[in-house]
Amino acid sequence: MSGFSTARLKMVDGQVRTNDVTDRRILDAMLTVPREAFVPASRQALAYLDLDLDVSEGPAKRFLIKPQLTGKLLQDAEIDEGDSVLVVGCATGYLAALAAKLARQVTATECDSALAAKAREAFATLGLANVTCKAAACTEGDPSAAPYDVIILNGAAEVTPEGLLGQLKEGGRLVGVSAESRPPRAVIVTRTHGEFGHRALFDATAPVLPGLERAAAFVF
Fold first, then answer.
1. Interhelix angle for 24-32 vs 67-77, to 10°?
2. Smallest Cα–Cα separation from 171: which of 186, 191, 155?
3. What is the rounded CA–CA span in Å between residue 45 and residue 89?
4. Taking all residues of the chain, what is their mean pLDDT, rounded to a whole number?
5. Is 75's pLDDT higher than 60?
C-alpha cells in the first residue's frame, strides 16, 4: 500500500468515520478518490491532514475544506444516484469528484480560471466523465444546467446566496456553512412549493467563498 493510500485510509477512519459519517457510498468514494491529485505537488504531503488546505496559485486564497466537513456535507445532502448536483467554489475539484461518485451529473464552478482548469485536468486523469467545471463567480452558479437537485458550497457564506437558491429544483436542497451569525453552522436549505426552509445541522467553520462575504461596515 502506497503512502498516500495509507494516509487516505487513516483520513477516512480517523477524521471522517469518527465524525458520524456512516454512508457507505461516501466512505467508499473518499477511500478511492485520491485527494493528493487535487493538491499542488509542493503541498501533497498535507493532502490528508485535518485542515482546510490552501490550493491557491494566485493572490486569492482558495481551499479544499476539511475532509470531515466534506464527508458530513455530502452525507447531509443525501445525494441520490439520479441527482444533478452543483458544487460552488470547487477550487481544484475534490468535493466535486466525490459528488460525481454519488450523482448522475455534477456541475462545478470556480472563480479562479486557472484552478478550474486544474479541476478539469484532474477529472480527466481520474476518468470522471459525469463532472464538468466552469470558471464562474460563486454567486452565479451555472444557470445553464439548472435546476439542481443538490447544491453544495465548498466553503462558507456570510450572506444568503439568493442567486444559488433560485437554481434549486422543487424538493431540492443546498448545504454549506452559514457564517451569517455566530457561531457559524452547517445548514441545509430546502425548496418546497417555492418556499425556502432553513435548518441548522451542526457547528462548523470553513473559509468564506469569494463573493459571499458580508459587506464591510462603514466606519468613521
1. 140
2. 191
3. 23
4. 95
5. yes
Query: Up-side HSE of residue 170: CA atoms within 13 Å toward CB?
Result: 2
pLDDT one-digit tens code per residue, 112-137: 999 999 999 999 999 999 999 999 99
> How far apart are alpha carbons 132 and 126 in whole angstroms?
13
Exposed, middle or buried, 219 (CB in 10 Å: 0-12/13-18/19+)? exposed
Domains with residue ranges and CATH for the chain: 3-203 (3.40.50.150)
- Please write the tens of the pLDDT for every residue from 139-189: 999 999 999 999 999 999 999 999 999 999 999 999 999 999 889 999 999
Positions of E strands within the chain: 53-54, 63-64, 84-88, 105-110, 131-135, 148-157, 168-178, 185-192, 195-203
Beta strand pairing call for 168-178 and 105-110: unpaired
Residue 87 has a CB neighbour count (10 Å cut-off) of 30
Name the nearest CA neighbour of 54 among 44, 213, 6.
44
The residues, ordered by sequence, that sit 6+ positions from 111 with a Cβ below 8 Å of its Cβ are: 60, 89, 135, 136, 137, 138, 210, 211
